[in-house]
Amino acid sequence: MRKDEISSYIVDLALKKGATDAVTKIHDRQHIMIRFSNNEVTVSKFYDELTVDIFLMIKRRRAATTVPFYSARRLERTIEKLIKIARMTPPSELYAPLPEGPFSYDPRLLKGPKISLSPDRLVGYVEEAINAALKEGAKKVAGTLNVAVEKTVLTTSGNVHASQERGTLDISVRAFTSDISSGHSVSISGSEDEFNSSEAGRIAGEIAVAASNPKSGESGRFTALLGPLIFADLISQVGILSSAFLVDIGQSFLVDKVGTQVACEKLSLTDDPTIADSYGARAFDDEGFPTRRNVIIEKGVLKGYLHNSITAKKYDVETTGNAGLISPHPWNLVVESGEKSFDGLLAEIDRGIYVTNDWYLRYQNYRRGDFSTIPRDGIFLIRDGFIESSVRELRISDNMLRILKNIRDLSRTRRWIKWWEVNVPTLTPYAVIEDLNFTKSTM
Amino acid sequence: MEDLAAFTVDYARGLGAEYAEARFQRDIQETVILKNGFPEAVVLEEKKGIGVRVLVDGALGFASTNNLTRKDVKNASGRAFKMARASSRIMHEKVSMDDSSLGNIKVEVNQRIGFDSVDIRSKIGLLKETYKLAVGEAAERNVKIPACSMTIDTWMTEKLVVSSDGAYIYSIIPRAAFSILMTAFHPQKGSAQRFFDLGGSGGWEIVEEWRLQSLIKKEAETLSEILLSAGKSPSGKTDVILGPELIGLICHESSGHPGEADRILGREAAQAGETYLKKNSIGLRVGSPLVNVVDDPTLDGSFGFYLYDDEGVKARKRMLIKEGVINEFLHNRETASVFGVKSNGSARASAFDREPIVRMANTYLEPRDYSVDELLEDVKEGVYIKSFMEWNIDDRRFNQRYVGLEAYRILNGEIKERIRNPILEVTTTGLWSSVDAVGRDLEFQAAYCGKGDPMQGIPVWTGGPHVRLRGVILEDDK
Q1: In sequence order, what are the beta bridge partners of B155?
Q2: Which residues numbered 125-154 in A keep a CB inside 8 Å of some CB on B?
Q3: Max CA pair span of chain B
């Protein structure tokens, strides 16, 4: 049987065996990753995977599985096992039937541009990034290149039969001028035309050179200029924790905040997977519901959470097309741009700190939003509107809601970000935050 | 599977690979999720396939497939070979494997109570009853538990590692894990949260030994009391006693990670970061002579248990810091070759589609001779931090922050009132140098260590005894 036939066969079988609802997603993915460090390739990796996700409900009883692409007979046994488990499971809080199709999908999202997996071409991207960083003055360069092509076939008992083909490219480049001075940049895209590994290398190198000879930073509250990498990390937290599932389990500072001002009026955040050829573009969610542009924050006001059918029923709203069969999640976050240039933002800061990147963000309390994270890869003191010097060894220790409310301005320029620390592709400007709390080691 | 793995190695060698290794791995996992007292779903996952790693002209290539046919593993081997060959053109220092002796053995961890002998209804029943007890315990103090997610994971990892230079390791290791995120809320006091994992290798008997119901009931009581009665933490220079939960985390973050040899070589520079240690840091004093930090994969029943690593090297206890001095790094065969030493069996891969990289297993501070009372009795004014929520460390593993959750003031050798969120922000050497007494108790916690790209989350234990730090500085809560 072909993949689409298998997909329909599984759903039909699940219904025949007693499921009220069923979803099958067949995922066929080829992925190449090249990791590099010290200006050379560390390892090259090729992943070839064909998996089958099955989700079924017997009203309020739910079970799910991910298995390899088995034979029809083996898949039948898998269905029987899932049905047995679902029957034994006590009922969950709610039942919501899967969205009823058929739906029409945006054809621009169903098939993305063709992307090459030629090893020589991909090694070429890596060489370009390394050489661009070295040309800027970096001494050593490390990073990761990922190129993937995938086909998803989805069938649901809600009369959905859909498939999508897409590819993605991303490179993350970290350049060093010494053990303690570095710069980081990325390039991500859903098409080869928009992908620019050389530019990522150049920016990483430029920051690394500027960050040379850092002095120990001072703790205190400062006006902070946050670059796209760190602001994407903070904003993607807002996007991820707007999942109604995470709100329900208390893993979000957005609990009970819908309709309230959670950020400065200058901040508007959407989840928009409908931008064709972008990294996170997709036509339908895991329930087969068409994706759409969802406003999460509009002029500082939290407009709603991200939903699948089950969480939508609980909150008495429509699904937002963000399923995740267990937990809804964002696909492609977009922060509305501001009006000023980077230099314009910088010029308005008398005394502050410019942070280019961060990592290791952890919460003391998700519900309150208390957290800390560690700036890295270029931290600079700002004095009278100019970058004065490079500093190091600082930590941002603050509250997420306080930071959102203290956004003073956003830049016109935006960059797409996704890397090891930022899981959701996020289009973000530079941001100026008032009164950001920096701490440092005391001994 | 044995034939297919051997075929894969032979085929890759036939293509011209200097070294080839095939690892069949199957992980069968069942996850039961309880959200706010209701079962959310039962999730089963089976991941199985072959990962093949080759060395071509000094460059490493890795490929994986979950299609277990000769045709597909040939394709995977061919891909790994081509990728490595293409990469070799920008290699300056050729990769090689050390000449460690390699195992030929079968390892199986037995389950006293098989996972299959406990049905789904019982597992969910256990979680539901645990949730009810927690809610009831909080309610007795007029505290609500508005949100609580709990999961029980049980899984079986079956591996077969075959390499062109003679490794043959077959292993089956079952593991069980529990995790919880619990929120306590009071209208006037706000919220407090607790997150932690439990885990071990073995059968369902591990879960029974945790006594989840009484454990989580106690956690709900503690969290409620923190919310209701914890006062402001003192700040400034003081003595601090850290419990095993924090000491384990500190050992992992500031002693285990910086001693990973691939990190020292810069291989993780763009992801998990680098380290303050250098290739020549063996012998460097980083702490008080009381500090012995070890990593030992061979602990029976541990979450990070294994006897042979994923390159076929026999696992052993590694003394990372001995009497306050850097003593040994964690190595796989590749890094050992660069350093001119033998691998100490630290190569692990989280799944068939991940390459083996240098990892910790069970990292802990070795206990010494003090009882907890003896640690306390010599503290005039201080703070005892038993558990934490927030932590992080910079990517050179030198500047770290731990924010306590369950914590108390110490006065004249006695534990006094609860305090809220004591903050320890300190360097690695500053912290380990301030250790002036080490307890004789020893406890372990489970965790998932994240490293690699794609991310490889692997089960580990962290642990240690109670420890006394002299004259460290606690920060003001913001």
Answers
A1: B29, B175
A2: 126-127, 130, 140, 142-144
A3: 73
Q: What is the rounded distance in angstroms from the CA atom of residue B264 to the CA atom of residue B396?
A: 10
Coil, strand or helix at B477: coil
Tokens of A112: 């993305």
Write out residues 258-277 of B within 8 Å (CB-CB) of A: 265-274
Q: Which residues of chain A from 173 to 202 reach within 8 Å of chain B, CB to CB? A: 173-174, 176, 179-180, 184
Residue A383 has pLDDT above 90, yes or no: yes
Task: Find the CB nearest A89 among B42, B83, B454.
Answer: B42
Omega of the bond leading into B454 within 30 degrees of 0 (cis): yes
pLDDT mean for each 10 residues of chain B (478 residues): 94 97 97 96 94 95 94 95 90 91 96 96 97 98 97 98 97 98 96 97 98 98 98 96 98 98 94 93 98 98 98 98 98 97 98 97 98 97 97 96 98 97 97 98 97 94 98 86
Which ipTM value was assigned to this complex?
A: 0.95
DSSP string, B136-148: HHHHTTT-EEEEE
Two tokens, residue A99: 């969205």
Write out pLDDT tens, residues B221-246.
Answer: 999 999 999 999 999 999 999 999 99
Beta carbons of A52 and A28 less than 8 angstroms apart: no
| Bridge partner list, B444 | B463
Say which residues have a Cβ less than 8 Å from residue A180's Cβ, sequence separation at least 6. A214, A392, B396
Say whether A78 sits in a helix, a strand or coil. Answer: helix
- Residue reference for tokens 């002209």: B57
Chain A CB within 8 Å of residue B12 CB: no
Contact in structure between B151 and B32 (CB atoms under 8 Å): yes
How is residue B370 written in tokens? 């003090």
Angle formed at CA B111 by CA B41 and CA B211, multiple of 5 degrees: 60
For residue B101, count other CB atoms closer than 10 A to its CB.
11
Rounded to whole angstroms, how far apart are CA atoms A54 and A27?
Answer: 11
Give the span between the Cα atoms of A307 and A327, in whole angstroms.
8
Kindly report, residue by residue over B282-341, the tens digit of the pLDDT: 999 999 999 999 999 999 999 999 999 999 999 999 999 999 999 999 999 999 999 999
Q: What is the pTM of this model?
A: 0.96
Name A110's Cβ contacts closer than 8 Å, sequence gap at least 6. A162, A163, A164, A165, A283
Please report which residue ranges of A381-433 form alpha helices under DSSP H: 400-405
Which amino acid makes up residue B19? Y
Band of residue A367 on the pLDDT scale cut at 50, 70, 90? very high
Across the interface, whether the CB atoms of A371 and B390 are under 8 A apart is answered yes
Q: How far apart are CA A133 and CA B462, in angstroms?
A: 39
Among A247, A281, A280, which Cα is nearest to A262's?
Answer: A247
Q: How far apart are CA B188 and CA B207, in angstroms?
A: 36
H helix count then E strand count, chain A: 10, 18
Which of these, A210, A241, A235, A155, lies nearest to A354 by C-alpha position? Answer: A210
Mutate which of A23, A46, A118, A245 to test chain B, going by most B C-beta atoms within 10 A?
Answer: A46
State CA B307 to chain mean position distance.
Answer: 17
The answer to whether residues B379 and B316 touch, using CB atoms and an 8 Å cutoff, is no
Instruction: Determine, for residues A371 and B266 on separate chains, whether the beta-carbon distance falls below 8 Å.
Output: no
Residue B69 · residue B76 · CB < 8 Å: no
DSSP state of A80: H
Which residue of B147, B389, B399 is in closest CB contact with A441? B399
Identify the pLDDT of residue B478: 60
From residue B84, alpha-carbon distances to A17, A435, B94, B449 in Å are 48, 49, 11, 28
Is B173 in contact with B141 (CB distance < 8 Å)? Answer: no
B239 touching chain A per CB within 8 A: no
> Rg for chain B (alpha carbons), in Å?
24
Residue A443 above 90 pLDDT?
no
